[in-house]
What does this fold into?
Amino acid sequence: MSEGPASPRTEVKRLPARGRYDRETIDAILDEAFVCHVGFVIDGRPRVIPTTYARAGDTLYVHGSPASAMLRSLKRGVDCCVTVTLIDGLVLARSAFHHSVNYRCVVVYGTATEVRDPEQKMEAMRLLVEHIVPGRWDDTRWPTAKELTATTVLALDLNEASAKVRTGHPVDDDEDYALPHWAGILPLVTTAGEPERDTTGSPAGEPVVPDYVRRYRRP
Ligand SMILES: Cc1cc2nc3c(=O)[nH]c(=O)nc-3n(C[C@H](O)[C@H](O)[C@H](O)COP(=O)(O)OP(=O)(O)OC[C@H]3O[C@@H](n4cnc5c(N)ncnc54)[C@H](O)[C@@H]3O)c2cc1C
It folds into this structure.
């Protein structure tokens, strides 16, 4: 059973039946995707920046260079809006007007806080790596103290979030169903291609592609 919106601004008003507010739906979308868009205002003007993220419980982590204008703004407590989008298919209607996209997306509002504790920062780094390539953290050199210092990690609470989901076939006007144009859904999925080994610097070890790379797929 879907819960209600967490705040007035998270209430889906346009096509409200597509709105979802339960954490199960929100978390599943956040855990399947790994790119978000962070919107905020800088010097009085709006800006939207794409970046990777990871989720742990009620927290979304983003990270990057301390020089990043996005991270510098957010760590000052600037209001932000983070969106995540998954595309499930193209919806081809008989009329151009009713073409659509099957999607699952999340919008989160809030203010981020900086993660300063080195242990928590390291854990956030682990989450970021594992969220994108599960199994990779234990098969990589971990960040040094210097590298951790050279990374800003921010945490955003998920308590003001909404999801919006479109599924199913096109919805055409009654009189258009008799038209000859093909109509339906063209499903789209994200799949991994053939792994390409980097041979720079005479790499040690067997040139065997690890299982977690060979079998890579999004949840
Ligand atoms: C791939 C894709 C393509 C789209 N194409 C179009 C398009 O061409 N034209 C168009 O008008 N719309 C499109 N949408 C829908 C769009 O995201 C908005 O939901 C819609 O435009 C209504 O905007 P609004 O500002 O009136 O939302 P409102 O319903 O007024 O928004 C109120 C609140 O609802 C929540 N909300 C709104 N939209 C979303 C969302 N998508 N995901 C999660 N929460 C949401 C937010 O918390 C927001 O603050 C598309 C969505 C996706 C994912």
The mean pLDDT is 96.
